[in-house]
Amino acid sequence: MKRFLASLVAALFVSSVAIAQTAAPTAAPATAAAPTAAAKTTEMKAKQEMVQSTTKAGVATTGSTATAKQEASNTATSKLRGKPTKEQRAADTKASAVYPQQGTATAAQAKTNTAISKEMPKQTVNMGTPAAEKAMEKAAKP
What is the pLDDT of residues 24-44, one digit of tens each? Predict the structure, then answer.
């Protein structure tokens, strides 16, 4: 944040110097240059006061202060909770690896579906019999 403010102040200074140099006539007398230097100094002081007041007030111009505050509160909340057990971490890892989009609910449903399908009786087909060959030919024809 300090680096950001330092670069902001430097950019303001450079831009004000460039504006003052382009606005001043090239053939101006030496006495006219002195008031512009004083004006630059007062303008620079005003800009510095504005930056300092903004910094002291805690106004976040980019949102980084708000993000830092949110991260600090998240860290404090996470420290209040207990760490997950080895079984909980393993379950979370398995659920996210198998079903990364849905999580544990879909994994549990898939497990139930697998158990139901294993209970159903399977049809036995003897592939070498003439009846099985006729059934396959019949199924292949539209």
Answer: 555 555 554 555 777 788 888
Per-residue pLDDT tens digits for 55-70: 666 555 566 777 888 8
Query: Which pLDDT score, from 0 to 100, does residue 23 have?
Result: 52
Domain C-terminal end among 41, 59, 77: 59
My answer on whether 8 and 55 are in the same domain is yes
Inside any domain, residue 126: no
Task: Identify whether the C-beta of residue 24 lies closer than 8 Å to the C-beta of residue 36.
Answer: yes
Which structural domain range is residue 42 located in?
2-59
SS (H, E, C) 8-44: HHHHHHHHHHHHHHHHCCCCCCHHHHHHHHHHHHHHH
Q: Please give the tally of structural domains in the chain.
A: 2
Residues 106 and 93: beta-carbon distance below 8 Å:
no
Task: Answer yes or no: pTM beyond 0.70.
Answer: no
**125 inside domain:** no
